[in-house]
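Following up on my earlier thread - several people asked me to post the actual chain instead of describing it. Fair enough. Here it is, all 153 residues.
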Amino acid sequence: MEVKELGHIVLYVRDIERSAAFYRDVLGWHQITMPGDGVGTRFPAAAFTSGRTHHELLLIEVGDEAQPLPRGRHLGLYHFGLKVGDSDDELRAALRRCQEAGVHVVGMSDHTVSHSLYIEDPDGNEIELYIDVAGVDWKDGASVLAPVKPLAL
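Reply from S.P.:
Thanks for posting it. Predicted structure:
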């Protein structure tokens, strides 16, 4: 077997309306129409696509009784990355949009091969918004593992 690409991510969320608004209105994903808007299903859900495939993100509501995300070093998902363009200007625009929407910005990093902005969604899931740095050869492996440097946008 050979993995061809990352297909989609599924996240449990406390409040489907709040999270759908974040991913749709702040991050700009296209929300896919689901039967009954996902509310008629066993668990309220919402699906999103960037246009690359049928869905890249699925949110499933688990309600207020769900356990919070563990903080600090733990097993499981650390973050997922979303490419938001090809230039630092586009990353700056993403930063401005997040700041205007009151999104919690965790940090910014220069990874040599990419420039990244780290944010949290309404449930505390960490998301990396990034651009690939033009002209950097990532295939040698050394660039991907280069020390992380601070990024000033």
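The first strand starts at residue 9 and ends at 13. That should answer part of your original question.
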